[in-house]
Amino acid sequence: MATQVPTVIPLCRNLCASSGNCHALTAQADEPGRVQIHPEDARLAGIVQDELVWVASRRGKVISRAEISDRVNQGAVYMTYQWWIGACNELTIDSLDPVAKTPEFKYCAVRLEKIEDAAWAEHYVMESYRQMKQRLAKAAKPLS
Cα–Cα 20 to 30 A to 23, which of 1, 38, 59, 101? Predict the structure, then answer.
């Protein structure tokens, strides 16, 4: 079920996330990204802490783990974009800003969709990650 709450998403980088030296991030490497949701928006959508949800836009949808937080404004959600699974750039558009000529990769309208079958969602994430690792291994060339 999708929320009827108008929701926007700013996409941001998690400081130091591109370095493999951060133990906290390395420990979460097999996890999808997290989407921060205001408590009232989560309540209206029936979404609870740490459950997997769909974050959808007109351009696509990704699976992400819910993080209920009053750090975000009601009517908005927040995601970082460095995760392997739940790559939130799949939600955005590459239209260019008329002045700066930069793509609009950091902001878009989205809706949250509760996933009723939690076991299916957890399996989907694990299987997606397994398939991605296989594709990467196949594409990698052995060192000579």
Answer: 38
CATH of 7-139, one of 1.25.40.10, 3.90.1150.10, 2.40.40.20, 3.40.50.12370: 2.40.40.20
**Rounded-to-integer distance, Cα 40 and Cα 48, Å:** 11
Banded pLDDT at 37 (limits 50, 70, 90) = very high
Strands 7-12 and 107-114: antiparallel
CB 80 within 8 A of CB 49: no
Task: Look up residue 107 and give its two tokens.
Answer: 């902001």
Dihedral sign of CA atoms 38, 39, 40, 41 in order: positive
| pTM assigned to the model | 0.74
